[in-house]
Amino acid sequence: MKIKLLALDMDGTTYYKGGEIVPANVKPIQQALEKGVDVVIVTGRPALAKQNKLVENGLNYKNALIAACNGACIYDFNDKKILKSSPISSTDAKTLFDLAKNKYPDVEVWGYVDDLNTVVQSRDTNHTEGWVFESGFFDGEYILFDDVEDNFNYSFFKLLAFNVSEEYIKEVQKLGLEHALSAKEHVLEINAKGINKAFAVKYLAEEFKVPHEQTMAIGDGMNDLPMIEYVKWGVSLENSVDAVKKVAQIHINKTNVEGGVAEAIDKYILNEK
């Protein structure tokens, strides 16, 4: 096994959930980079979340890229520019905001605008737990949907629907949008059609000219499932959801907090077992 491209999820995998990198993972990632492996973060987080600290953690050793918002925003964090943008259209996004406002009032919608600095939200009071968690990643401008509804001209890297219902999920499916459900938290991540972490890994492999048989991805959640299925070597951790464990070729008997990513890198990349 010779790995040349390693795609790493953040929350619940390489990083603490909602936090910074698990310290045990820093040195192995740096060693993999020094060995010539393209290590890229592929995450649901926004590219500029303060917890990412990609430069501080040495991830700019070679190709300083992050595939953020589940691959909708591929961003060069050295040059501070978007390399590939795959947003949800304004029309589809407005439909989902309208539904939350007029038909499913228990659902709260959050949208990462494709300017990297703006979030449109469906309400500004009585926030759900999901909203509180997500707000920890964002320090930009918040805009209330009601204030821009009549002149809605925004495209979004990702939408999040908190306190989501089965009926609302069916509305998303009708639009043909990509989506991943965190059932435990009742959070739905929504992306443009065909845009997911597998899309991101395929794009990165083509950019770096890495053959499929030399690709690996490590993840824990439902939004990781497409890339775990896509790569040659999908890796699950002890805290990964069952769906990810089921399709992964490799399972690490450690959680993210216990340094599962570090063990995977050490065993399958640094020592090439």
Automatic annotation (TrEMBL):
Segments forming a coiled coil: none
CDD domains per record: HAD_Pase (cd07516)
Top-level division of the source organism's lineage: Bacteria
Alphabetized GO MF terms: magnesium ion binding; phosphatase activity
Keywords per UniProt: Hydrolase
A Pfam family it matches: Hydrolase_3
GO cellular component: cytosol
Name by which UniProt lists this protein: HAD family hydrolase
Species whose genome carries this gene: Mesoplasma lactucae ATCC 49193
